[in-house]
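Here is the promised in-class demo. Please do not try to memorize the tokens; focus on the logic of going from shape to residues.
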């Protein structure tokens, strides 16, 4: 069964005493990225966490169209600000862990590391990676397991120009294969034709 939409209806989010947004309708569809933009603190990360089922909405509902009985979270790759890299493990072991947990339906660990430009670094302990290399390792997670919905929070943070281009190529391939992609970003992502959802007015 193919996922045909990730939809949020009349979403509201209150954090602390602050109402970040209310009455927000969101719809991501296959083949076209949805970019969530807006100034710092507008609620972009909060929205992505709500859409991924990691944070409850104050009001409103999130649903996946065409997802059958599979829980929403199992359709989604969520890439947050933190890279979720375990420093004490090797680069290989980090990715092998995610491949096992998420379901080994994509590339092998070695193939994914080559794809993100970390080939040859698999036996290093992850704590010695640079910020951009850790981000590349986090992105490799998207490749070792196929999931139809990518929810990405500032995915190109710390990436150099070449790694940004690689990421854009992964994103476009995912969209071309009928995947969904929602990303919060302050930078252009080169994902082709996109839709934009603006929170909090202009920066
Ligand atoms: N656990 C929390 N408790 C209270 N307030 C919070 C909590 N988490 C986030 N906030 C507040 O919610 C607001 C929105 O935060 P969020 O991280 O969603 O913004 P953002 O648009 O992603 O910002 P940025 O562009 O800086 O990443 C901020 O004012 C933040 O301080």
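The designed amino acids, position by position:
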């Amino acid at each position: 069964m193919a996922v045909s939409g990730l939809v949020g209806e009349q979403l509201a989010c209150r954090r602390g005493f602050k109402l970040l947004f209310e009455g927000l309708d969101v719809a991501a569809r296959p083949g076209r990225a949805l970019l969530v933009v807006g100034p710092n603190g507008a609620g972009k990360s909060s929205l992505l966490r709500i859409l991924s089922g990691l944070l409850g909405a104050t009001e409103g509902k999130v649903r996946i169209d065409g997802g059958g009985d599979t829980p929403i979270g199992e359709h989604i790759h969520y890439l947050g600000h933190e890279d979720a890299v375990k420093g004490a493990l090797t680069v290989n072991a980090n990715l092998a862990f995610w491949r096992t947990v998420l379901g080994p339906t994509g590339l092998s660990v070695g193939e994914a590391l080559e794809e993100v430009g970390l080939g040859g670094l698999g036996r290093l302990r992850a704590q010695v990676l640079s910020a951009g290399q850790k981000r590349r390792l986090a992105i490799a997670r998207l490749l070792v397991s196929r999931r139809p919905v990518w929810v990405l929070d500032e995915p190109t943070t710390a990436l150099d120009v070449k790694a940004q281009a690689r990421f854009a190529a992964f994103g476009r391939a995912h969209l071309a294969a009928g995947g969904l992609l929602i990303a919060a970003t302050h930078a252009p992502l080169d994902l082709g034709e996109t839709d934009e959802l603006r929170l909090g007015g202009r920066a």
